[in-house]
Amino acid sequence: MTREQFRPENHDNDNFLLTTVVGSYPKPKWLNRAQDLIEDDESSFDDDDLEEALDDAARLITDEHERTGMDVVVDGEMRRNEMVEYFAHLIEGYEFNGRVKVWGHNYFDKPSVVDEVEYDQEWLVDEFEFTDSASARPVKVPITGPYTLANWSFNEVYDDTEELAYDLADLVNEEIVRLVEAGAKYIQIDEPALATTPDDHAIVGECLDRIVDDIPEDVRVGLHVCYGDYSRIYPEMLDYPVDEFDLELCNGNYEQLDVFKETEFTADLALGVVDAHVAEVESVEQIKENIKKGFEIVPPEQLTVSPDCGLKLLPRDVAYGKMENMVKAAREVEEELDAGEIDVGRAAPADD
Amino acid sequence: MPEVVTTTPGLFPLPDWAKDELSELKGHQKADLISGDETGEIQEAYEHGRSEIIDRQREAGLDRIVEGQFRWDDMIAHPLAVHDNVDTRGIVRYYDNNNFYREPVVTGDLTADGDVAAELNAAGEQVDEGLQAVLPGPYSLADLATDEHYGDDGEFLDAVAEFLAGEIAEFPEVETLFLLEPSLVENAPGEGADERASEAIDAVASEADAEVVAHTYWGALDEKVYAHLMDADVDAIGFDFVADHEANLYNINEYGTKSDVALGLVDGQNTLVEDPETIAERIEWVADQTPSADFETVYATINTETFYLPYNKFEAKLEALAAVNKTEVEA
Question: Which residues numbered 88-107 in A keep a CB inside 8 Å of some CB on B?
Answer without folding.
Answer: 97-107
